[in-house]
Amino acid sequence: MAKMDILRLMAGFRKFRERHFETVAEDTYFGKLAGPQHPKTLIIGCSDSRVDPALITSAAPGEIFVVRNVANLVPPYEKGGGFHGVSAAIEFAVVNLQVENVIILGHRQCGGIRALMLNEGNVVPNGFVSQWVKIAEQAKVNVLKKHAGEDDEDLCRHGELESIRCSLTNLKTFPFVEDAIQKRGLTLMGIYFDLESGQLLECDSESDGFRNVEL
């Protein structure tokens, strides 16, 4: 079965190549994008296979710079660098690419947040996932304080929303992000995709809640 899946993906790549590369180069997406990239927006999304930022936004190649990780989390700024893939990608997008917007894209039915809130799922004790989702530990604390007694599904949904606020807070701890906000108006947004209903919610800093995105 796995081999059949790979063959299907390779057949898909063949169609992609025929569509975008086997014509006059300058008339294709990738012919036009052969030079440096100039995306305007960085999207920090989840690795979840159902939540593809490019698909959700109908973005063309070169339009968005995407970072995906378990539960779409942003760690707080740490001095000294080290092996910080998400932080490195944020730095590259903000400092090198000079993006104008950064979006944290959370979603319903997030397995990473469920592991954080309920300690459920096939998570290795003291493994990479369990350590990673601790980035949003404050979100869990806030949810349990505000929504104690609610059922598991509601707690997870609250956790998914609250973790977006947590990541927005962490984004502002990066000096180059704060500098870009002050000097060139970098915009930070928190967006929540409800894959059950197809709705988008936006984090509202004034009300400390989320509201429907009017499309």
Q: Can you count the beta strands?
A: 6
Q: In the CATH hierarchy, what is the architecture of the largest domain at level 2?
A: 3-Layer(aba) Sandwich
How many structural domains? 2
Helix content: 40-55%
Q: SS-based structural class?
A: alpha/beta
Strands of the largest sheet, in order across it?
Answer: 2-1-3-4-5-6
CATH topology of the largest domain: Beta-carbonic Anhydrase, Chain A
Alpha plus pi helix count: 9
- What is the element string, with H for helices and E for strands? HHEHEHEHHHHHEEE
Query: Please, what is the average pLDDT?
Result: 91
Description:
The protein has 215 residues and is an alpha/beta fold. It has two domains: 1-35, no CATH class; 37-212, Carbonic anhydrase (Beta-carbonic Anhydrase, Chain A, 3-Layer(aba) Sandwich), CATH 3.40.1050. Helix content is 43%, strand content 17%. It has nine helices and six strands. The protein has helices spanning 2-20, 29-32, 53-57, 85-96, 111-118, 128-132, 137-146, 152-171, 175-184; strands at 41-46, 64-69, 101-107, 187-194, 199-204, 209-212. Strands 2-1-3-4-5-6 form a six-stranded mixed beta sheet, with helices on one face. The model has no long low-confidence stretch (mean pLDDT 91).
